[in-house]
Model the fold of this input.
Amino acid sequence: MKWLRRCAAAFRFLTILPLPGSFGTTEEDLAGSSLFFPVVGLVLGLIAGACAWVLWRIMPPPVAAVLLTFILFSFSGALHLDGLADSADGLFSARSRERILVIMRDSRIGAMGVIALVMVLALKISALSVLGRDEAVRAALLIPISGRCAIVVMMALLPYVRPEGGLGTLFYSRNVKPAALGGLLLLFAAGFLVLGLPGLVVAGAAMAAVVFFALFCRLKIGGATGDTLGASCELAEAFIVLALAALPVALF
Done:
């Protein structure tokens, strides 16, 4: 029952999918839920894959790409896009560590936040729009897995840096490293199953982007915040679809 509550807590936090009652809403449930973040990614990937299968049959690829991108960020109520915007405003502000953390707390979006949002969304849409029907379905399966895997990998690599605490502190527990390992195994296994050996390259490209982002966060603020965890999700999703779009060019 404890594991079911923690799994429910992961779905409640990372998605807007309706769950009945108050199952999985306590702080204890949230604290152990990171182990199930990759599971959330797998479920969302199956839903997104089904959506892509339908969209690429009834819509032109550019329109289908826009709609799929909307579906993908709607899964979380744009929570991770908000983290991306806040992270860009703070990390690219050329301010001190303390000031960066203050900027990232600000609910208003600045110029760098807008630029980051536009670039990531444009990258996803343009890369998806050049994929064929089968490739789009494969991409839709992998995108949510890579994003939720990125969150636990960031947590395993970086400490939480807000001294006053925050929502992100709830998810830092002894489960983080097993969650990161499980997420990586799931991502690379899924990549291999849907793409073969090139799938390992695609998954590796997404995780390499996350590692570089983690190093950048360590340099700028010494660790992670809830915003940078959300940003890592968006970056991993963008890089995995970019790698999928580039794969035919690289191979042929």
Q: What stands out?
A: The chain has a mean pLDDT of 90.
